[in-house]
Design brief:
single chain, 3-stranded antiparallel beta sheet, kinase activity, M1 Pyruvate Kinase, Domain 3, transferase, Pyruvate kinase-like protein, MOSC_domain, molybdenum ion binding
Length: 184
């Protein structure tokens, strides 16, 4: 379980530029990313008053899902592309600890970046503007065509600041009580 790719954008462009590292700031998000802030920064939610808390500071998606739908890291606006973790199976409050590859699990008490999973990313209409028909590839439907799942990744808040680099190990700390992920 590790970090495959990282991306950010200072402007609200749909696709984010790949970068070698990200600096996470506790309670705010990613330094230099347009979605960083205490209150929600996503354009579709800026009209809500009072401004809700920003539960969408960091967008993570598994490389395996990107491969399945034929999209490269950063193209759909995610910040962290993971490999080897079923992010969609984690519950609300699960923590992802980012550790240097050479550091063992016993070194968890040393400072390191941590994100806290808040919920699912709801695939937005912008996905189809990027590539026609792509939004549907991130939706799971039952036999009656009702939506029963979403695969556009998860949204998280920054629980502990620090630098995240490509190739870092990710250690999952599950919440004490499982709560299924809903859209945030």
């Amino acid at each position: 379980m590790y970090v495959h790719a990282l991306a950010k954008s200072v402007s609200h462009d749909f696709t984010k530029a790949l970068v070698p590292n990200l600096t996470l700031i506790e309670g705010l998000g990613i330094e230099g990313d347009c979605h960083s802030g205490v209150h929600v920064q996503h354009r579709s939610r800026l009209h809500i008053q009072p401004s809700p808390p920003n539960l969408r500071q960091v967008h993570l998606i598994p490389k395996e899902i990107l491969n399945e739908v034929g999209v490269a890291p950063g193209e759909i606006g995610e910040n962290i592309t993971t490999e080897g973790i079923d992010l969609l199976a984690l519950g609300v409050g699960a923590k992802l600890h980012f550790l240097p590859a050479e550091r063992g699990d016993g070194d968890m008490e040393l400072p390191h970046a941590v994100v806290v999973i808040q919920g699912l990313r709801n695939p937005c209409p912008q996905i189809d503007k990027f590539q026609a028909g792509l939004k549907e590839k991130f939706i799971v439907r039952d036999k009656d065509r009702s939506i029963v799942g979403r695969k556009a990744g998860v949204m998280a808040t920054v629980g502990a600041g620090g630098v995240v680099e490509r190739g870092m190990r990710i250690v999952v700390e599950r919440a004490e009580e499982y709560q299924a992920l809903g859209c945030v």
